[in-house]
Structures are given as C-alpha cells and as structure tokens.
C-alpha cells in the first residue's frame, strides 16, 4: 500500500474512533466533557481548512481509483474479446485471444488493488460526513439538555396546600352536580 493510502487508512481509523466515542451511550456527566475535549481542536479555523483540503484530496484519490478501475475493466474485457490494447484484433478464428495465467493474474491483482483503494477512499469520505453530522447532533443534544435543566420545574403560579385542597373540593362538588344532572336526564328519557 502506498504512503498516501496508508495515510487515508489512518484517517479512516481515526474517524471510526471518533464515531464510536460519539455514539457511546454515556451519561451527560461524562459525554459533555468528552465531546468538548474532542471538538475543541476542530473549532480552530486553520484545522477546519486543513480538514477540507484533506477531504478534497481524498475525493481526488477516489475519482482516480474509479477511473483506474474502469480502465482495468475495459482492458480485461477487451482481452477477453480478443482485442489488443489499442483495439486491434489478435488471433484468428473469431475466438478470444489466449491470456496467459500470469497476464490474467496481473490484471486481476491490479483490479483488486484498485477496488480496495476505491472502497478505502469511498468509506473514508462517507464516514467523514457521518462524523461531521454526529458532531452536530451531539452538540445540539447537549445544548437542549442544558436548556432543559435551566428551566425551573416548579410552576410560576404554585398554590399552597390548603388552596389546592379547596380547589379539589370545589371540583368534586362540580362533578357531583354534573352526575346528578346526568341521572336526571337519563330518567326523563
């Protein structure tokens, strides 16, 4: 694996660690300091520009891997049809050209490496989007929990115990009068 794909793999592992840390069901007591510790470096403008440049670099490598894979597929299928590299036909009799096992193994190994690199860069791009969204959701969750805790749970018009008992008594009286009216209406029918 070349150096830049090794770096992309390390970025992928780092993103997976961030994803796991942010996805753990931790209590707010531990989640808030952990999230703030993780997010703190990413709020720096220089770090954000660097991350955007790295994402563009990974996207360029992804596009390169896709084009390389398409070229390898064309080469493989053109040799199976009996055409040479430049489109000329090889061999007679209408059959495909004979590929030696070494040539076939070479093409398949290059195809495997191209697919591996494409999947590596594609998953790195996808996970970077996921981690960015998870960061946003966790910050929003922490803000909403903080707002919820700031709200006073006691109502503004709290009544004393005697006032509540008196209100309950009046409501019970209203219920009794409604019951009697209901019985009277049923008896009239």
TrEMBL record:
GO terms for biological process: endoplasmic reticulum to Golgi vesicle-mediated transport; intracellular protein transport; protein localization to endoplasmic reticulum exit site. It is a multi-pass membrane protein. It is found in: Endoplasmic reticulum membrane; Membrane. It comes from the Eukaryota. Keywords: Coiled coil, Endoplasmic reticulum, ER-Golgi transport, Membrane, Protein transport, Transmembrane, Transmembrane helix, Transport. InterPro entries: BAP29/BAP31, BAP29/BAP31_N. Residues 161-188 form a coiled coil. Residues 1-150 form the BAP29/BAP31 transmembrane domain. Its main location: endoplasmic reticulum. GO terms for cellular component: endoplasmic reticulum membrane. It holds the Pfam family Bap31. The chain crosses the membrane at residues 6-28, 49-70, 118-142. Belongs to the BCAP29/BCAP31 family. May play a role in anterograde transport of membrane proteins from the endoplasmic reticulum to the Golgi. This is Endoplasmic reticulum transmembrane protein.
């Amino acid at each position: 694996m070349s150096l830049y794909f090794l770096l992309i793999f390390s970025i992928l592992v780092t993103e997976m660690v961030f994803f796991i840390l942010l996805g753990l069901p931790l209590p707010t007591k531990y989640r808030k300091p952990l999230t703030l510790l993780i997010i703190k470096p990413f709020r720096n403008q220089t770090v954000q520009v660097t991350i955007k440049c790295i994402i563009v670099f990974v996207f360029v490598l992804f596009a390169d891997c896709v084009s390389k894979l398409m070229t390898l597929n064309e080469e493989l299928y053109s040799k199976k049809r009996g055409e040479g590299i430049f489109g000329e036909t090889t061999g007679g009799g209408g059959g495909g050209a004979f590929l030696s096992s070494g040539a076939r193994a070479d093409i398949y190994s290059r195809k495997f490496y191209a697919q591996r690199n494409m999947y590596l860069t594609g998953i790195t791009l996808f996970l970077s989007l996921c981690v960015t969204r998870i960061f946003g959701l966790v910050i929003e969750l922490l803000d909403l929990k903080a707002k919820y805790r700031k709200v006073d749970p006691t109502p503004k018009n709290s009544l004393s115990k005697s006032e509540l008992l008196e209100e309950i008594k009046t409501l019970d009286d209203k219920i009794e009068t409604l019951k009697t009216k209901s019985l009277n209406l049923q008896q009239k029918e």
